[in-house]
Every structure is written in structure tokens, then in C-alpha cells.
Amino acid sequence: MPVQTGAGTRISIGPTTAAATPTAYAALTPWTEIGEVEDLGEFGDNVGLANFTALSNRRVRKFKTSYDAGELQLTLGRDPLDAGQVALAAAVAADADYAIRIELDDKPTPTGKNTIFYFHAAVTKLTTQVGNADAIVKGSVTMAINTPVLVVPAAV
Hints:
By secondary structure, the protein is mainly beta. The chain has a single domain, classed as Elongation Factor Tu (Ef-tu), domain 3. It is built from two helices and ten strands. The strands form two sheets. Strands 1, 2, 3, 6, 7, 8, 9 and 10 form an eight-stranded antiparallel beta sheet that branches. A two-stranded antiparallel sheet has the order 4-5. The protein is globular. 18% of the residues are buried. It comes from Pannonibacter tanglangensis. It holds the Pfam family Phage_tail_3.
């Protein structure tokens, strides 16, 4: 698939049910699309480093340590009646991790399938940004990703 825009990308929040494979995630219900998302931010593993310096050769050696998939930062147009935004508000109040699905609009053929990302995250922030008289009232959401990000590639 060639380079593309993010247009058409959708994000949904699912249940707190655990899942470890793409098939298990796909079987979860219900999935509620989060409406009016303007920006999804970035996500994916970053690997920590531990350093060690031997006295004898003074060479710093670096070792990979923990994997951290990061925090997803959403910006959205605030819509208190949107079912997905209502689900986000409930998720902030809960201590559980929620299943998250992100679907790109990148199917290679009209009958193909889009790339899908699955993971579980704790929704840790849902704030309102009012701005000035000419600004859209927006929301800011933070999701702390607590599982590997599973990718189901686009298919014909």
C-alpha cells in the first residue's frame, strides 16, 4: 500500500474483556465508535534502555529493557450525545483497561479489508478545551496502552 492520509480512520472502544489475539479482539462486543475525532496522535512500542559502563574499557553499553506502547492522545470535537464519547467518560471513571480498535481506510481493493490495530488501554483523561469565541469546543483524551499493539494488515 502506498503512502496515504489518515482520512477515513476510525477508532472504537470495546469492553474490558481480555483478548490476546486479533481473532479474540474481533469477537469482542460491543464496539462503540468514538465520534468527531480530529487527531489520533501516535502509538506503538518504545523500548527502554539500561546502560552499563565497565571500568576497564570505559565503554558505555546499552541493553534493551521494557517495552512501552505509550499513551494515545486523542483530540475530538466535544459531543456529549456521541455514544463513543459517553463510553470514554465512563472509562475514565473505571479502573479497568478497555479494548481499543483503530481501523485505517487503506483496503487495497474495493472488496478488501482495512488495516486494524487492537490493544487494551486505561482511559486516564477526558478534558474539555473551550478556547475563544471562534474556536470549536474540543475534548482531549489520553489512553495509556497496557498491552502489545496487535496489527491485522490490510488484505485484498
